[in-house]
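Recap for those who missed Tuesday's class. We walked through two folding examples back to back. For each one, the amino acid string is listed first and its predicted structure tokens come directly after. Nothing is annotated here on purpose, so try labeling regions yourself before you check the end of the notes.
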Amino acid sequence: MLVRAGAVIPLGECESTTDAQRDTVRQWQLWPAEAVTHGEVFDDDGESYGWPQGNALWLNWTLSSSATRIDLTIEKRGDYQPAWREISLLLPAG
């Protein structure tokens, strides 16, 4: 798989389902670059149409990296509470 430097890839362990309560694990694979990158991760229950009213989760992230440091800032928006309660961060080997 080719990944753009500075990317964040959200991962989960749940099989394809609309049962949001089974989606209890969230991981973010970080691919640092010596730069500042931005992005947004969206999550909702997979069934309702509540996102226009804010019933969803938007996580806006900023990844700032150098040769010696990685900073990740996350800003949350929306009132949806997913089944997962924490995000594990993964880095490439090396």
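Example two. Treat it independently of the first, because the proteins are unrelated.
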Amino acid sequence: MDDERRAQCVTAGVLTAGRLPASRAGTEPVSTDLPPSRAARAIGEIGVDAIGARARAALERGGRRAEPLAAFPSSPYLRAGGELIWVSHRLPAAHPRAVRVASPPPAAGEGRGSVRFGALPAPDVRACALPAATGAGLARARAACAALAAAPDAIGAPRGLGVLLVGRTPPFPLEAAVPQVDALGAALAAGDAGAAARAAYPLLGLGPGLTPSGDDFVGAALCVRLFAARVEGRQAAWQAAAARLVAAAPARTNEVSATLFGDLVAGETYAPLAALLRALAAGDCHGARGAARALAALGHSSGWDMLAGCVLGLTGGLGRHARTNEGVGSRG
């Protein structure tokens, strides 16, 4: 169907949900199958190309409408059905809360208010799925993770708390985290859930940005530690410790980061971190390196923070060399 005929149909109010009715002359329907994202644009909705399971459930509860957050009106996070969702035209990675839309949503200051979404596709739950917890898988994961951590330069130039992987002290304000990171690593290695919770608490909210480094780091460490606990039979103690930290997070950090921290602890995470854990559990060092690179590319330092947390959670340590004070004096 040409553009002129489509425009006439839209003006007449007959183009809905990607379908055209039969003409008044009684002929067969002219066309039926506009892609959902194009159909949504035609009727003033934002088309959805891909969606996470949690985001889909939230939008279904909210009648496919979402509102900007009062505290972060220009962020990509909206509220739908009582849940936060992450909406973007160019998502860097799949996530259970993520919604990849066909066109950029209205920006703050451009009349952005309630946003209505078009038809919701089925969620892809495989991309963010963690591996099955088995004894053999955990042993492979720890060995492969140690090998990965021994060659961090193959992943890229670290940022945030990721610099601990190469033996450097992180820059201000993260250098204050080093004693707590060491204490957390010792508690994780000893299997002491209570000590781990006490060491992790001061790290929550530490660092700049919408998702501070401390939140991403602790969340990833707990995510993999809970994975190990399912194998080792000490799940209750670690779940209780994780629950205390999740309950404390809203008072330590912002709403967006506290929500994502809770997801991460629960094993609902970004696709690259899930892919990394699957590769590690399979003993696939090559695949793990590729997934680690994809993870490290997330955000300014979020991916590196999660990678460092993953290594700490599986091995109980970070870095093979004595730390230097590179970057400590930079407080700008």
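Answers for example two:
The longest strand covers residues 83-88.
Residues 1-34, 36-43, 320-332 have pLDDT under 50 and may be disordered.
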